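Input/output pair, single chain:
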Amino acid sequence: PRWFMKDIHMNPAEAVQAHLDLAARRSLAMHFGTFQLTPEGIDEPVRELAKALRERSVPAEQFRGAEVGESVSLPRTLIAG
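Output:
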């Protein structure tokens, strides 16, 4: 729940703002859609992320989520270090 986790978890709008502030090339949403812990719909964070991306004109391919159990591979050019 937001009231309990706001100090350690970002909501979708905050995550998009962090993506922009950090000038990130790619971002991956996580910690959503696994357990029904809040009164909002289990898919509400995904819809809110899509809305925040549209509002901030961030291309969806720059910021995505993963399906439960999905592995995400990043090109070496995106890995820092």
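The two ends are 35 Å apart (CA to CA). Residues 2-78 form one domain.
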